[in-house]
Amino acid sequence: MKALIFDAFGTTVDWRGSMIRHTARFGLPEETADLWREQYQPQLETVRSGRRPWVNLDVLHRIGLDIVLDELGNDLPERYRRTLVKAWHRLDPWPDVVEGLTQLKETHIIAPCSNGHIAQSVNLAKYAGLPWDAILGAELARAYKPDPLVYRASADALGLDYDEVCMVAAHNDDLHAARAAGLRTAFVPRPTEDTEPTSDWDIVAPTFKELAR
Amino acid sequence: MKALIFDAFGTTVDWRGSMIRHTARFGLPEETADLWREQYQPQLETVRSGRRPWVNLDVLHRIGLDIVLDELGNDLPERYRRTLVKAWHRLDPWPDVVEGLTQLKETHIIAPCSNGHIAQSVNLAKYAGLPWDAILGAELARAYKPDPLVYRASADALGLDYDEVCMVAAHNDDLHAARAAGLRTAFVPRPTEDTEPTSDWDIVAPTFKELAR
Predict the structure, then answer these.
(1) Model confidence over A5-15: pLDDT tens digits?
(2) Does 3.40.50.170 match the CATH number of domain A3-14+91-212?
(3) Hey, which CATH number is domain A15-89, 3.40.50.2000, 1.10.287.70, 1.10.357.10, 1.10.150.240?
(4) CA A104 from chain center: how many Å?
(5) Of B120, B121, B158, the CB nearest to A118
(6) What chain A residue is nearest to B124 in terms of C-alpha separation?
(7) Chains A, B: CB contacts under 8 A, how many?
(8) Which residues of chain A have pLDDT under 50?
(9) Which of A67, A188, B7, B157 could bond B169 through an S-S bridge, CB–CB 3.0 to 4.6 Å?
């Protein structure tokens, strides 16, 4: 195993706690974060199904936000909507992440394999202090997980065989797709995501720090 | 200026001193490094001109090496040729680079914008301790500098306007192309590359450490 690639939202960063805080700043009710996230898979699916050409996650987040605000009857001004979309570039890491990644980086290549685009992943890394070696993921493949293209494009970009790369996620479905694409798999539970592994993943670790050990 | 993107070969790393050392390990004469590098632009040009579809720099380096060894009448075995191509993933940084980049990273996004592919740039960063925020450059655009697509794809990937990104190089021709593509420019002289700026670049600095100041 030469590289570990990581899911971002939920696995590396606490999207939910962070977005509750960000949306509260604009006077939006606490359920806004969850309602917005409920738009995530349906909007990704518009691209995965081919109904929409590949657009980045800022575009899809904006479409989802407009739907949610419409449902809430909220006429938040345009400039605040744009600021809120960019709030997905500023999410807090889980407390074990920076130390765990720093340890893993000593012996492995580490990179995000997120549905976030390169700019979002870079800004998130700068904000959260994530010491990635490279930024991989959806934009390289112009596809969205769980499309196998995303996992394979990330391994290909590193010049590695699929089984030399391990996908790390707090989502069993992400790992099922990574395994089907030929990658190795590591499950890390998170309180807001999947809390139990549902398959015999190559590694199950309670935190990134344990993963490094 | 929000991001600085860097040429690799000659600007960030001492390709020449490193490759003289690498080739000497295989008993090759000292001129091998320079002869090999002379194949660099002609091989890139096969892609830039459209005569060859985009292939990564390992492929082009291998073609160039075979030509040089043929000229030298050297029948170096296949496995050593493969090792030598990968030696371009292990080049020493100039002495000011790691400290300068570490300082620049505190206030800016930093990334390579090299004709090296992602795997080569990642391996080089691991070997040389280069603290990049992302890996940009030729592979993102599937084109080779000085094609304007390479500079623009790097800025686009960061979600930045072209004039928010500064290209850093020890090659005046690289900076002419970056400026023509809309980027800002910084010249850092290197003893084996261009030693003097030939235009009014936005910044001229003797080292990466001075650039950070």
Answers:
(1) 999 999 999 99
(2) no
(3) 1.10.150.240
(4) 19
(5) B158
(6) A133
(7) 55
(8) none
(9) B7
